TrEMBL record:
<dbReference type="GO" id="GO:0006508">
    <property type="term" value="P:proteolysis"/>
</dbReference>
<dbReference type="InterPro" id="IPR002510">
    <property type="entry name" value="Metalloprtase-TldD/E_N"/>
</dbReference>
<dbReference type="InterPro" id="IPR045569">
    <property type="entry name" value="Metalloprtase-TldD/E_C"/>
</dbReference>
<dbReference type="GO" id="GO:0008237">
    <property type="term" value="F:metallopeptidase activity"/>
</dbReference>
<comment type="similarity">
    <text>Belongs to the peptidase U62 family.</text>
</comment>
<dbReference type="InterPro" id="IPR036059">
    <property type="entry name" value="TldD/PmbA_sf"/>
</dbReference>
<dbReference type="Pfam" id="PF01523">
    <property type="entry name" value="PmbA_TldD_1st"/>
</dbReference>
<protein>
    <recommendedName>
        <fullName>TldD/PmbA family protein</fullName>
    </recommendedName>
</protein>
<dbReference type="InterPro" id="IPR035068">
    <property type="entry name" value="TldD/PmbA_N"/>
</dbReference>
<feature type="domain" description="Metalloprotease TldD/E C-terminal">
    <location>
        <begin position="217"/>
        <end position="443"/>
    </location>
</feature>
<dbReference type="Pfam" id="PF19289">
    <property type="entry name" value="PmbA_TldD_3rd"/>
</dbReference>
<feature type="domain" description="Metalloprotease TldD/E N-terminal">
    <location>
        <begin position="32"/>
        <end position="86"/>
    </location>
</feature>
Length: 447
């Protein structure tokens, strides 16, 4: 689907009369997915879709409609539907206008070589992972996803934004009878995905994790690898780094702007213009994404906004609007970064006298007490005891229950290595590994 065709579709919507203002977002996506388990490919599929969302403004009321077609009649139907339903909506006192055009910086995020990757090439990548696992007498599972997106936002005030992108994500879980290991890589460029490295990491974790033992729950120093940290930040973004939760006073940031909420070593920001991520230079309203510092040297600095929450808060949009059907969640940061530290991961581990290394988490629940960022969840795919600066004993998985505000005030060290993770939607993370002291494990498992 060409840029020209997307623009032609936008013109059909915007030329329709009957609304004070009109907006249309168009997202065309082609995803090719190769999934594998038990050292075999078991699913190889391709999915292509187009999503057209229309917002019609009549006074302070908004009507919306969505259609999965660029057919002119379907586009006209969706536009008329949005216009006709607007009067039946509830007036929004905070709505003033759709955004006006603003300049944004294009990003090179589309790699034709990625878009042209064949099913055979994907199978060859998976083969590298599977062959290495098989030679180690282990079982590999995972997925290789290749996405191409063409995204446009246009409105009757002159917003005209178009951005093509590609993204590749390879995940690998390698298992034995009593252990497992995980690895992941993501990039807009298929040539930057090295399956041998992914296989080696997940295999190494699995082998080291054989014959795990139980450890008593309690407070331990923890070394959270980047994968574990990404699970934490995914929840932190959702419950507290957007303006909606902040204005509803449920965010852990509420009432704490300008105060220390984390250790001085911690700086967190959102930057959708980073070309190493699944970048997006503007949001679903066509507003340029600003780089937003959320935590600076441990001090809470701010949250992200869309036009509606910005009007309510007397601020300006930072370019973080989600699609209309997700407006319930308000604006969210989709490209979170955490600043690196000065030390390598190996040197940090060597400084820990006694602790637990966590590869990743799952089954996290971050809704226990959002104002305290109280989370619970489980470790998985590689949990190890650290003794006298060395990884010694593989551990059975543990359950944690901990306030992330408390945990991040206890950050002792941050690694200089960072990974780019995620990309299932538009969200990606650029994160280091961290050493956190006195982390609370409250339970254990049988595996």
């Amino acid at each position: 689907m060409s840029e020209e065709r997307i623009r032609e579709a936008a013109k059909v919507v915007l030329s329709t009369s009957g609304a004070d203002q009109l907006e249309v977002t168009l997202l065309q996506e082609n995803q090719r997915l190769t999934r594998f388990a038990n050292n075999e490919i078991h699913q190889n599929v391709a999915h292509e879709d187009v999503q057209v969302r229309v917002r019609a403004i009549r006074g302070k009321k908004i009507g919306t409609a969505k259609v999965n077609s660029l057919n002119q009649q379907r586009l006209k139907w969706a536009t008329r539907k949005a216009i006709d339903t607007a009067p039946y909506g509830v007036e929004n006192d905070y709505f003033t206008s759709l955004p006006s055009p603003q300049r944004w910086q294009p990003i090179q995020a589309h790699f034709p070589s990625t878009e042209e990757v064949s099913a055979r090439r994907r199978a060859d990548v998976v083969r590298e992972v599977v062959d290495k696992a098989r030679r180690s007498r282990l079982s590999a599972a995972g997925a290789l996803s290749v996405r191409t997106r063409r995204f446009g936002v246009f409105n009757s005030l002159g917003v005209d934004a178009y951005h093509p992108s590609t993204w590749v994500r390879l995940t690998s879980v390698v298992s034995s009878q009593d252990s497992s290991g995980y690895s992941e890589v993501g990039s807009p460029d298929f040539e930057c995905v090295h399956p041998a490295r992914v296989a080696d990491e997940s295999i190494s974790k699995c082998v080291k994790g054989r014959h795990p033992v139980e450890v008593e729950p309690g407070r331990y120093d923890v070394f959270l690898e980047e994968y574990a940290l990404s699970e934490i930040f995914n929840w932190l973004a959702w419950i507290g780094m957007g303006a909606r939760s902040f204005q509803e006073e449920s965010s852990f940031m509420y009432g704490r702007i300008g105060e220390n909420i984390m250790a001085e070593k911690v700086t967190v920001w959102d930057d959708g213009a980073d070309p190493d991520t699944f970048s997006l230079p503007f949001d679903f309203e066509g507003v340029p994404r600003r780089k937003v510092t959320i935590v600076e040297r441990g001090v809470a600095r701010g949250v992200v906004y869309d036009t509606l929450t910005a009007a309510r808060g007397g601020s300006i949009s930072t370019g973080h609007a989600l699609p209309p059907e997700y407006s319930l969640f308000g604006p969210l940061p989709l490209h979170l970064h955490m600043a690196a530290g000065p030390s390598s991961k190996a040197s940090i581990i060597s400084s820990i006298e006694k602790g637990v290394m966590v590869t990743r988490f799952h089954y996290i629940n971050g809704l226990l007490k959002p104002r305290e960022a109280l989370f619970t969840g489980m470790t998985r795919d590689g949990t190890f005891l650290i003794e006298n600066g060395k990884l010694t004993t593989p551990l059975k998985n543990l359950r944690f229950t901990e306030s992330m505000l408390r945990a991040f005030t206890n950050v002792a060290e941050i690694s200089k290595e960072r990974r780019v993770l995620g990309g299932d939607d538009f969200s990606t993370f650029v994160l280091p590994a961290v050493w956190i002291k006195d982390f609370n494990f409250t339970g254990r498992t049988e595996f």
